[in-house]
Protein backbone atom coordinates (compact mmCIF):
# COMPACT_ATOMS: atom_id res chain seq x y z
CA UNK A 1 0.00 0.00 0.00
CA UNK A 2 2.84 2.39 0.79
CA UNK A 3 4.39 1.81 -2.65
CA UNK A 4 1.03 2.43 -4.35
CA UNK A 5 0.42 5.59 -2.32
CA UNK A 6 3.92 6.84 -3.15
CA UNK A 7 3.38 6.14 -6.86
CA UNK A 8 0.04 7.98 -7.04
CA UNK A 9 1.11 10.81 -4.75
CA UNK A 10 4.38 11.20 -6.69
CA UNK A 11 2.59 11.63 -10.03
CA UNK A 12 0.18 14.22 -8.60
CA UNK A 13 2.89 16.02 -6.65
CA UNK A 14 5.23 16.26 -9.63
CA UNK A 15 2.36 17.80 -11.66
CA UNK A 16 1.99 20.45 -8.94
CA UNK A 17 -1.47 19.12 -8.02
CA UNK A 18 -2.74 19.09 -4.46
CA UNK A 19 -2.54 15.47 -3.31
CA UNK A 20 -5.84 14.76 -1.56
CA UNK A 21 -6.77 11.52 0.15
CA UNK A 22 -9.76 11.11 -2.20
CA UNK A 23 -7.48 11.11 -5.27
CA UNK A 24 -4.95 8.78 -3.66
CA UNK A 25 -7.67 6.42 -2.42
CA UNK A 26 -9.15 5.95 -5.90
CA UNK A 27 -5.73 5.43 -7.49
CA UNK A 28 -4.54 2.94 -4.86
CA UNK A 29 -7.76 0.93 -5.06
CA UNK A 30 -7.50 0.80 -8.85
CA UNK A 31 -3.90 -0.45 -8.60
CA UNK A 32 -4.34 -2.96 -5.79
CA UNK A 33 -7.98 -4.00 -6.14
CA UNK A 34 -8.23 -3.59 -2.37
CA UNK A 35 -10.04 -1.18 -0.11
CA UNK A 36 -7.91 1.75 1.05
CA UNK A 37 -9.04 3.82 4.03
CA UNK A 38 -7.76 6.68 6.14
CA UNK A 39 -6.61 4.24 8.83
CA UNK A 40 -4.11 2.84 6.31
CA UNK A 41 -2.68 6.35 5.95
CA UNK A 42 -2.41 6.42 9.76
CA UNK A 43 -0.56 3.09 9.71
CA UNK A 44 1.84 4.39 7.06
CA UNK A 45 2.43 7.49 9.17
CA UNK A 46 3.07 5.29 12.23
CA UNK A 47 5.66 3.17 10.39
CA UNK A 48 7.34 6.05 8.52
CA UNK A 49 6.51 9.31 10.35
CA UNK A 50 8.62 11.51 8.05
CA UNK A 51 7.15 10.17 4.79
CA UNK A 52 4.29 12.65 4.43
CA UNK A 53 3.18 15.97 5.81
CA UNK A 54 -0.57 15.62 6.46
CA UNK A 55 -2.98 18.56 6.66
CA UNK A 56 -6.69 19.38 6.56
CA UNK A 57 -7.28 21.94 3.81
CA UNK A 58 -10.32 23.40 2.03
CA UNK A 59 -11.03 25.42 -1.10
CA UNK A 60 -9.41 22.66 -3.18
CA UNK A 61 -10.82 22.16 -6.71
CA UNK A 62 -12.83 18.92 -6.65
CA UNK A 63 -14.03 18.52 -10.28
CA UNK A 64 -17.33 16.84 -9.44
CA UNK A 65 -16.17 14.05 -7.15
CA UNK A 66 -19.01 14.69 -4.73
CA UNK A 67 -16.93 16.81 -2.31
CA UNK A 68 -17.81 20.48 -1.87
CA UNK A 69 -15.04 22.99 -2.44
CA UNK A 70 -15.75 24.45 0.99
CA UNK A 71 -15.28 21.07 2.70
CA UNK A 72 -12.05 20.20 4.46
CA UNK A 73 -10.00 17.44 2.82
CA UNK A 74 -7.03 15.42 4.05
CA UNK A 75 -3.95 16.25 1.95
CA UNK A 76 -0.63 14.45 1.68
CA UNK A 77 2.63 16.17 0.83
CA UNK A 78 5.77 14.01 0.40
CA UNK A 79 8.57 15.20 2.67
CA UNK A 80 11.65 15.82 0.53
CA UNK A 81 15.05 17.40 1.06
CA UNK A 82 16.16 20.75 -0.24
CA UNK A 83 18.42 19.11 -2.80
CA UNK A 84 15.54 17.22 -4.43
CA UNK A 85 14.31 19.99 -6.71
CA UNK A 86 13.64 20.32 -10.43
CA UNK A 87 13.18 23.83 -11.86
CA UNK A 88 13.11 25.24 -8.37
CA UNK A 89 10.37 23.06 -6.86
CA UNK A 90 10.57 19.71 -5.02
CA UNK A 91 10.39 16.63 -7.24
CA UNK A 92 9.75 13.01 -6.20
CA UNK A 93 12.15 11.11 -8.47
CA UNK A 94 12.27 7.36 -9.17
CA UNK A 95 15.46 6.98 -7.11
CA UNK A 96 13.81 8.79 -4.19
CA UNK A 97 10.75 6.54 -4.47
CA UNK A 98 13.03 3.51 -4.20
CA UNK A 99 14.87 4.97 -1.21
CA UNK A 100 11.56 5.69 0.55
CA UNK A 101 10.38 2.15 -0.13
CA UNK A 102 13.55 0.71 1.43
CA UNK A 103 13.19 3.01 4.43
CA UNK A 104 9.57 1.94 4.95
CA UNK A 105 10.53 -1.75 4.70
CA UNK A 106 13.39 -1.26 7.18
CA UNK A 107 11.07 0.47 9.65
CA UNK A 108 8.46 -2.25 9.30
CA UNK A 109 11.02 -5.00 9.96
CA UNK A 110 12.28 -3.09 13.02
CA UNK A 111 8.75 -3.07 14.44
CA UNK A 112 8.51 -6.84 13.98
CA UNK A 113 11.92 -7.20 15.65
CA UNK A 114 10.53 -5.52 18.77
CA UNK A 115 7.69 -8.06 18.92
CA UNK A 116 10.23 -10.82 18.32
CA UNK A 117 12.39 -9.49 21.16
CA UNK A 118 9.41 -9.56 23.54
CA UNK A 119 8.61 -13.12 22.38
CA UNK A 120 12.18 -14.28 23.13
CA UNK A 121 12.10 -12.61 26.56
CA UNK A 122 8.91 -14.53 27.43
CA UNK A 123 10.45 -17.95 26.66
CA UNK A 124 11.68 -20.34 29.31
CA UNK A 125 14.58 -19.81 29.59
CA UNK A 126 14.52 -16.27 28.15
CA UNK A 127 16.66 -15.66 25.09
CA UNK A 128 18.57 -12.56 24.04
CA UNK A 129 19.76 -12.26 20.43
CA UNK A 130 21.54 -9.07 19.33
CA UNK A 131 19.52 -7.40 16.56
CA UNK A 132 22.59 -6.93 14.35
CA UNK A 133 23.19 -10.72 14.38
CA UNK A 134 19.57 -11.77 13.80
CA UNK A 135 19.14 -13.39 10.37
CA UNK A 136 15.84 -15.24 10.88
CA UNK A 137 12.91 -15.43 13.29
CA UNK A 138 12.55 -18.00 16.06
CA UNK A 139 10.81 -21.10 14.57
CA UNK A 140 7.85 -20.70 16.96
CA UNK A 141 7.47 -16.96 16.35
CA UNK A 142 4.41 -16.58 14.13
CA UNK A 143 4.86 -13.41 12.08
CA UNK A 144 1.23 -13.58 10.94
CA UNK A 145 0.10 -13.13 14.57
CA UNK A 146 2.02 -9.89 15.09
CA UNK A 147 -0.56 -7.20 15.96
CA UNK A 148 -1.57 -4.76 13.24
CA UNK A 149 0.23 -1.43 13.20
CA UNK A 150 -1.63 1.04 15.41
CA UNK A 151 -2.54 3.99 13.16
CA UNK A 152 -1.03 7.35 14.03
CA UNK A 153 -3.49 10.14 14.72
CA UNK A 154 -4.41 12.05 11.58
CA UNK A 155 -5.24 15.77 11.48
CA UNK A 156 -8.96 16.41 11.79
CA UNK A 157 -10.91 19.30 10.28
CA UNK A 158 -11.88 22.08 12.68
CA UNK A 159 -15.32 21.19 14.04
CA UNK A 160 -18.00 23.25 15.60
CA UNK A 161 -19.37 22.08 18.90
CA UNK A 162 -20.83 18.67 18.26
CA UNK A 163 -22.69 16.67 20.90
CA UNK A 164 -21.79 13.01 20.74
CA UNK A 165 -22.67 11.44 24.12
CA UNK A 166 -25.82 11.34 26.18
CA UNK A 167 -24.05 13.19 28.99
CA UNK A 168 -23.08 16.05 26.64
CA UNK A 169 -26.62 16.27 25.28
CA UNK A 170 -28.01 16.30 28.81
CA UNK A 171 -25.63 19.05 29.94
CA UNK A 172 -26.36 21.23 26.92
CA UNK A 173 -30.13 20.80 27.00
CA UNK A 174 -30.73 20.97 30.76
CA UNK A 175 -33.76 23.11 31.41
CA UNK A 176 -34.89 22.91 27.80
CA UNK A 177 -36.33 19.36 27.87
CA UNK A 178 -39.27 17.80 29.61
CA UNK A 179 -38.56 16.03 32.94
CA UNK A 180 -39.30 12.68 31.30
CA UNK A 181 -36.73 13.25 28.51
CA UNK A 182 -34.11 14.47 31.01
CA UNK A 183 -34.61 11.33 33.08
CA UNK A 184 -34.21 9.08 30.02
CA UNK A 185 -30.96 10.83 28.99
CA UNK A 186 -29.64 10.63 32.56
CA UNK A 187 -30.30 6.87 32.68
CA UNK A 188 -28.56 6.39 29.31
CA UNK A 189 -25.51 8.35 30.47
CA UNK A 190 -25.37 6.28 33.67
CA UNK A 191 -25.55 2.97 31.79
CA UNK A 192 -22.84 4.10 29.36
CA UNK A 193 -20.51 5.05 32.22
CA UNK A 194 -21.11 1.72 34.01
CA UNK A 195 -20.47 -0.27 30.80
CA UNK A 196 -17.17 1.55 30.25
CA UNK A 197 -16.04 0.96 33.83
CA UNK A 198 -16.98 -2.70 33.75
CA UNK A 199 -14.94 -3.68 30.68
CA UNK A 200 -12.21 -6.13 31.67
CA UNK A 201 -8.67 -5.15 30.80
CA UNK A 202 -6.99 -7.88 28.75
CA UNK A 203 -3.61 -8.84 30.10
CA UNK A 204 -0.87 -8.86 27.51
CA UNK A 205 1.75 -10.38 29.76
CA UNK A 206 2.76 -13.85 28.62
CA UNK A 207 1.60 -16.64 30.86
CA UNK A 208 4.43 -18.37 32.72
CA UNK A 209 5.58 -21.66 31.25
CA UNK A 210 4.04 -24.53 33.16
CA UNK A 211 5.38 -28.04 33.33
CA UNK A 212 3.22 -30.50 31.43
CA UNK A 213 1.65 -33.35 33.36
CA UNK A 214 3.59 -35.71 31.06
CA UNK A 215 6.86 -34.37 32.56
CA UNK A 216 5.93 -35.02 36.18
CA UNK A 217 8.66 -36.95 37.95
CA UNK A 218 11.37 -35.74 35.58
CA UNK A 219 14.26 -33.98 37.27
CA UNK A 220 13.90 -30.19 37.14
CA UNK A 221 17.65 -29.87 36.60
CA UNK A 222 17.43 -32.16 33.57
CA UNK A 223 14.56 -30.11 32.16
CA UNK A 224 16.57 -26.90 32.60
CA UNK A 225 19.57 -28.42 30.82
CA UNK A 226 17.37 -29.57 27.92
CA UNK A 227 15.75 -26.14 27.64
CA UNK A 228 19.12 -24.39 27.76
CA UNK A 229 20.47 -26.70 25.03
CA UNK A 230 17.39 -26.05 22.89
CA UNK A 231 17.78 -22.30 23.43
CA UNK A 232 21.43 -22.41 22.33
CA UNK A 233 20.49 -24.39 19.24
CA UNK A 234 17.71 -21.94 18.32
CA UNK A 235 19.95 -18.94 18.94
CA UNK A 236 22.54 -20.40 16.58
CA UNK A 237 19.77 -20.96 14.02
CA UNK A 238 18.56 -17.34 14.28
CA UNK A 239 22.07 -15.90 13.86
CA UNK A 240 23.27 -18.22 11.12
CA UNK A 241 25.16 -16.57 8.26
CA UNK A 242 23.16 -16.50 4.97
CA UNK A 243 26.02 -18.21 3.12
CA UNK A 244 25.98 -21.02 5.66
CA UNK A 245 22.20 -21.20 5.22
CA UNK A 246 22.64 -21.58 1.46
CA UNK A 247 25.20 -24.37 1.94
CA UNK A 248 22.85 -26.21 4.31
CA UNK A 249 20.05 -26.01 1.75
CA UNK A 250 22.36 -27.43 -0.91
CA UNK A 251 23.49 -30.26 1.38
CA UNK A 252 19.85 -31.16 1.99
CA UNK A 253 19.28 -31.59 -1.76
CA UNK A 254 22.34 -33.74 -2.47
CA UNK A 255 20.99 -37.18 -1.38
CA UNK A 256 18.11 -36.93 -3.89
CA UNK A 257 20.40 -35.49 -6.56
CA UNK A 258 22.93 -38.32 -6.18
CA UNK A 259 20.54 -40.86 -7.73
CA UNK A 260 19.72 -38.46 -10.59
CA UNK A 261 23.42 -37.84 -11.26
CA UNK A 262 24.17 -41.55 -11.43
CA UNK A 263 21.21 -42.14 -13.78
CA UNK A 264 22.47 -39.35 -16.06
CA UNK A 265 25.87 -41.03 -16.44
CA UNK A 266 24.30 -44.47 -16.93
CA UNK A 267 21.99 -43.10 -19.65
CA UNK A 268 24.76 -41.18 -21.44
CA UNK A 269 27.10 -44.21 -21.43
CA UNK A 270 30.17 -41.97 -21.32
CA UNK A 271 33.04 -41.94 -18.82
CA UNK A 272 32.88 -38.15 -18.54
CA UNK A 273 30.53 -35.30 -19.47
CA UNK A 274 31.13 -31.62 -19.95
CA UNK A 275 29.89 -29.51 -17.04
CA UNK A 276 27.38 -27.81 -19.33
CA UNK A 277 25.84 -31.09 -20.50
CA UNK A 278 25.78 -32.56 -16.98
CA UNK A 279 24.04 -29.47 -15.58
CA UNK A 280 21.48 -29.48 -18.40
CA UNK A 281 20.66 -33.20 -17.91
CA UNK A 282 20.39 -32.74 -14.13
CA UNK A 283 18.12 -29.70 -14.50
CA UNK A 284 15.84 -31.67 -16.85
CA UNK A 285 15.46 -34.51 -14.34
CA UNK A 286 15.34 -32.59 -11.05
CA UNK A 287 11.82 -31.99 -9.67
CA UNK A 288 12.42 -28.30 -8.93
CA UNK A 289 13.41 -25.66 -11.47
CA UNK A 290 17.05 -24.68 -11.11
CA UNK A 291 19.28 -22.59 -13.37
CA UNK A 292 22.52 -24.19 -14.72
CA UNK A 293 24.68 -21.97 -12.51
CA UNK A 294 22.98 -23.24 -9.35
CA UNK A 295 23.17 -26.84 -10.55
CA UNK A 296 26.92 -26.47 -11.11
CA UNK A 297 27.33 -25.38 -7.46
CA UNK A 298 25.71 -28.66 -6.38
CA UNK A 299 27.93 -30.73 -8.66
CA UNK A 300 31.04 -29.01 -7.31
CA UNK A 301 29.80 -29.69 -3.77
CA UNK A 302 29.56 -33.41 -4.70
CA UNK A 303 33.22 -33.29 -5.75
CA UNK A 304 34.17 -31.50 -2.52
CA UNK A 305 32.44 -34.01 -0.23
CA UNK A 306 33.01 -37.21 -2.23
CA UNK A 307 36.11 -36.73 -4.40
CA UNK A 308 36.44 -40.50 -4.88
CA UNK A 309 32.93 -40.58 -6.44
CA UNK A 310 32.76 -37.32 -8.41
CA UNK A 311 35.77 -35.72 -10.08
CA UNK A 312 35.89 -32.36 -11.85
CA UNK A 313 38.66 -31.79 -14.37
CA UNK A 314 39.30 -28.39 -15.94
CA UNK A 315 40.99 -28.76 -19.33
CA UNK A 316 42.02 -26.08 -21.77
CA UNK A 317 38.95 -26.67 -23.93
CA UNK A 318 36.26 -27.29 -21.33
CA UNK A 319 35.47 -28.47 -17.78
CA UNK A 320 34.55 -32.15 -17.46
CA UNK A 321 32.86 -34.09 -14.68
CA UNK A 322 33.56 -37.78 -14.12
CA UNK A 323 31.60 -40.27 -11.97
CA UNK A 324 32.52 -43.65 -10.48
CA UNK A 325 29.42 -45.64 -11.47
CA UNK A 326 30.64 -48.70 -9.59
CA UNK A 327 30.38 -47.06 -6.15
CA UNK A 328 27.44 -48.22 -4.00
CA UNK A 329 24.71 -45.56 -4.27
CA UNK A 330 23.29 -46.47 -0.86
CA UNK A 331 26.65 -45.76 0.77
CA UNK A 332 26.92 -42.46 -1.13
CA UNK A 333 23.46 -41.38 0.04
CA UNK A 334 24.26 -42.31 3.64
CA UNK A 335 27.48 -40.26 3.60
CA UNK A 336 25.69 -37.24 2.12
CA UNK A 337 22.89 -37.45 4.70
CA UNK A 338 25.45 -37.65 7.51
CA UNK A 339 27.31 -34.62 6.14
CA UNK A 340 24.05 -32.62 6.06
CA UNK A 341 23.23 -33.55 9.68
CA UNK A 342 26.72 -32.64 10.88
CA UNK A 343 26.51 -29.24 9.18
CA UNK A 344 23.07 -28.66 10.71
CA UNK A 345 24.41 -29.37 14.18
CA UNK A 346 27.17 -26.73 13.91
From TrEMBL:
InterPro entries cross-referenced by the UniProt entry: Cdt1 (IPR045173), Cdt1_C (IPR032054), Cdt1_C_WH_dom_sf (IPR038090), CDT1_Gemini-bd-like (IPR014939), WH_DNA-bd_sf (IPR036390)
Keywords of the record: Cell cycle
Pfam families, sorted: CDT1, CDT1_C
Chaperone in keyword set: no
Superkingdom of the organism of origin: Eukaryota
Residue intervals of the CDT1 Geminin-binding domain: 1-156
GO function terms (MF aspect): DNA binding; DNA polymerase binding
SUPFAM superfamilies noted in UniProt: Winged helix' DNA-binding domain (SSF46785)
GO cellular component terms, A-Z: nucleus
Keyword Cell cycle applies: yes
An example Gene Ontology biological process: mitotic cell cycle
PANTHER family from the UniProt entry: DNA REPLICATION FACTOR CDT1
Family: Belongs to the Cdt1 family.
This protein's name: Chromatin licensing and DNA replication factor 1
The organism of origin for this protein: Athene cunicularia (Burrowing owl)
Amino acid sequence: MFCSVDTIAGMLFNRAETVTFAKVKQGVQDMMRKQFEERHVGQIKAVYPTSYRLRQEKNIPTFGNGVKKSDYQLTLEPVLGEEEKVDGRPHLSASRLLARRKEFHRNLVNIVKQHHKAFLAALSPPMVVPEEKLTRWHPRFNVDEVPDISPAELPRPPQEDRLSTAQEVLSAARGMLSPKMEKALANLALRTAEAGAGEPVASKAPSPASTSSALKGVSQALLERIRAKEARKLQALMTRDPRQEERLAMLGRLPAMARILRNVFVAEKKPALTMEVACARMADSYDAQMPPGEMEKHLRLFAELLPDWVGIHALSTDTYIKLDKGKDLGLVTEMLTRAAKEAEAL
